[in-house]
Specification:
This protein has 374 residues and is an alpha/beta fold. Helices cover 41% and strands 19% of the residues. The chain is built from 16 helices and 15 strands. It has an eight-stranded mixed β-sheet, with helices on both faces. It has a five-stranded mixed β-sheet with strand order 12-11-13-14-15, with helices on both faces. Strand 13 and strand 14 form a beta hairpin. The longest helix is centred in the first third of the chain and has 24 residues. The protein is globular and about 70 Å long. Ligand VHF binds next to helix 4, strand 6 and helix 9. The site of the ligand N[C@@H](CCC(=O)OP(=O)(O)O)C(=O)O has 18 residues, from helix 4, strand 6 and helix 9.
Length: 374
């Protein structure tokens, strides 16, 4: 199977569109191109792919609405432009998606949001709910409250963080070059396109060391870093020229476009390695014999009904150990309920969670994707 078949099979895509591409010479939003990408995203969605769009362009759109011709350097002016421009940006997406009968949602995030556990979980469940509802989330940085990000314009990293957050299979970074080239094509006209490579390959650092274009901020270095970040949760990345005709649908058909950066491990393996190695356990769940057996032998999710006792203090999303009746550890995983809630629902069938807690987040205590056997 060609590696490009990965793209046809990738269920969940994060598509990042950079400033360099979105703005018509930095003067205004290129709404005609935006309409073209929206048409393709609508097509991908009809084919069963789930899409989160990460779109830059608020600063440039704001500059044009405010009648500014040069990008300001003062942070508060950039933030003001972004606040004005974000309105135009989401308006343009909303109206184009509407022609396909599709609904969009605006999600503004900061890197700090994603490093706070509770906010991370909230962002994750919001995005998952939106995808479940068939809505297209349109994500940008919350420029009103950030400083460095707006200065370095690093939506590439945001795209990768979103890919990690929703466990995407694929991150597509659309930019103004055809992909990652052997050198910055603005300086080296003979530079050639790299078609397929492992994201971790050290020789890429030198290739991507050139700066950015006039309008973009991050250049290739942030795109490479984003691909490596996405690879940590097992997602592949494609860096591709967004001006190429029907670029997204052609990628979906496994056509050789742009640069494919591959992860070392497939998504679930990468995620489980990360789970196993990175988190401390905050509590324990004692399983009955049946639950211990299905976890060990069939790799299934852990339901509350198979748990006899809960100990420790843990929050939703934290790591707990699953032990058998002899206190032998079987597995560990990220728990869907906090210690108090878990204590109330253990031993009970999942359909009773609603009646016991007054709400239900998930039917499992630990989903199998979040569970590693030890
Ligand atoms: N090896 C490379 N291959 C392709 N582009 C490169 C490379 N090194 C640096 N660049 C520069 O990166 C720019 C794209 O990044 P950037 O301007 O930040 O765009 P965006 O707004 O899409 O994030 C290109 O226009 C190019 O000048
Ligand atoms: N959030 C800001 C800046 C983001 C930005 O420029 O990022 P990038 O497209 O990666 O260079 C905006 O929407 O203009």
């Amino acid at each position: 199977m060609s590696k490009r078949q990965l793209l046809t099979q990738a269920k969940r895509w994060v598509i990042k569109i950079g400033s360099a591409l979105l703005t018509d010479n930095g003067k205004r939003l290129d709404t005609q191109s935006m309409a073209g990408w929206v048409d393709q995203i609508a097509e991908l969605s009809r084919l069963g792919h789930e899409i989160v769009l990460v779109s830059s362009g608020s600063v440039a759109a704001g500059m044009s609405r405010l009648g500014w011709t040069a990008r300001p350097s003062a942070i508060h002016e950039l933030q003001a432009a972004a606040a004005v421009g974000q309105m135009g940006l989401v308006q343009a997406y909303e109206s184009h998606f509407d022609t396909h009968g599709m609904t969009t949602a605006q999600v503004l995030l900061t890197h700090a949001d994603l490093s706070d556990r509770q906010r991370y979980l909230n962002a994750r469940s919001t995005l998952r709910s939106l995808l479940g509802l068939g809505v297209i989330p349109v994500v940008n940085e919350n420029d009103t409250v950030v400083t460095d990000e707006i200065r370095f314009g690093d939506n590439d990293t945001l795209g990768a963080l979103v890919a990690n957050l929703i466990e995407a299979d694929l991150l597509v970074i659309m930019t103004d070059q055809q992909g990652l080239m052997t050198a910055d094509p603005r300086q080296e006209p003979t530079a050639e396109l790299v078609s397929e490579v492992m994201a971790s390959d050290p020789k890429l650092d030198l290739m991507a060391s050139g700066g950015s274009g006039q309008l973009g901020r991050g250049g290739m270095a942030t795109k490479l870093r984003a691909a490596r970040l996405a690879a940590r949760s097992g997602a592949a990345t494609v860096i591709v020229g967004g001006r190429e005709a029907r670029v997204l649908t052609r990628l979906q058909q496994a056509e050789l476009l742009g640069t494919l950066l591959l992860p070392e491990h497939e998504r679930l393996v990468a995620r489980k390695q990360w789970l196993a190695g990175h988190l401390r356990t905050k509590g324990q769940l004692v399983l009955d014999q049946g639950a211990a057996r299905v976890l060990r032998q069939e790799g299934r999710s852990l339901l509350p009904v198979g748990v006899k006792a809960v100990s420790g203090e843990f929050q939703r999303g934290e790591m707990v150990a699953c032990v058998d009746e002899n206190h032998q550890e079987i597995a560990r995983g990220l728990v869907n309920y906090n210690a108090l809630e878990a204590a109330k629902v253990v031993g009970k069938p999942s359909h009773q969670i609603q009646a016991i807690l007054g709400y239900v987040d998930e039917p499992e205590l630990i989903h199998r994707d979040n569970l590693v056997l030890v």
